[in-house]
Amino acid sequence: MKSRVRAVAHRGDPYLHRENTLRAVSAALAAGADAVEVDVQLTRDGVPVLLHDRTLERLWNDQRQIARVTLDQLEEVAAPGLGLRIPTLAEVLQVIDATDGAQLMIDLDDSGPAEATWKVVNDLGMADRVAFCGSVVAMLAIRELAPGAEISLTWNRLQLPKQRLLDELRPDYLNPPFGLVDERLVGSVHDAGMGLATWTVDLRRTMRRMLALGVDSLTSNRIALLRRTIEQYPG
Question: Domains in the chain, ordered, with CATH?
Answer without folding.
Answer: 6-232 (3.20.20.190)
